[in-house]
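Write out the bound-state structure for nicotinamide-adenine-dinucleotide.
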Amino acid sequence: MKNVLVIGSTGQIGSELTMKLRGLYPDGNIVAGFIRGAEPKGVLLESGPAEEADVRNAGQLAAIVDKYKIDTIYNLAALLSAVAEKKPLLAWDIQMNGLLNILEVSREKGCAVFTPSSIGSFGPDTPHVNTPQDTIQRPKSMYGVTKVATELLSDYYHLKFGVDTRSVRFPGLISSVTLPGGGTTDYAVEIFYAAVKGEEFVCPIAPGTFMDMMYMSDALKAAVEIMEADPAKLIHRNSFNIASMSFDPEIIYSAIKKRIPDFKMRYEVDPVREAIAQSWPDKMDDSCARNEWGWKPDVSFEQMVDIMIEALRKKLNQS
Ligand code: NAD
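---
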């Protein structure tokens, strides 16, 4: 990996991944891809090249690959679960037609491709506890439908055309740097903002609803390590379960309350998000990722809670 195009570089994962890649590969071109209306700003714009890269525009993608001799594409363009339910046709267009454009450009020009899947690729019939790597995937949301199809299409391009496609199924990601973009696990970030601001948190997810979550630095580590893994050792490709922590609203609330005793939370369950959350795994089995490319998370639940509170206290004091 030397010259990389990050599509969706201004999103929650893209902005931090682009900066991490620029640190790891200072001699390469790490291009921040963006769409109009979501242009990069600040350090993301100043620390390297940026290009308009709409996944629905194959010509635009091919020109960037040629200009910067791109060898790896991180495709982070997507509408997340709650947004995709409101705009299912647009979600299909970005997630599927966009992916097809990327895979075709990569087939022609020899790029490796990372397109993340998600815990959203599972459905109500999936075993929820220790969800296996290879299991039933019958999601009911448009987000989930596109994630399963992404896994299949990416594997197809590897098997049929030899395109080096690899990916991981991200859990809900928790970061103090960027706000989440409209997913079902957003509450796990928003709860920290409320706690640190001294506000009551209104929780849209019901008590007892467990979901897999992960601190952002571990997600970025996984995104880099899977693309650098020895291909000879990969039995799977699209897409690996990766797990780190699993909790419900009560558990994260009490962990925060231990540190901020005045913190209050009440429930106003959002039926759309709750139905999606109910259909997702409580905790994935990530042994294939551990065995095939050495996956191991670094940040525990308790560490994550400490890091988030400290980082948001600093951030909110500054603004
Ligand atoms: P996000 O909503 O924060 O960012 C999405 C990015 O896609 C934005 O920068 C947006 O400008 C860009 N985009 C939208 N339409 C586009 C188009 N037509 N062409 C190019 N770019 C376009 O999302 P995120 O949280 O950074 O997620 C990135 C990927 O990771 C997605 O595939 C998502 O499904 C997956 N994922 C995220 C999480 C999470 O918790 N954040 C969990 C599981 C999987």
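---
The two ends are 36 Å apart (CA to CA).
The mean pLDDT is 96.
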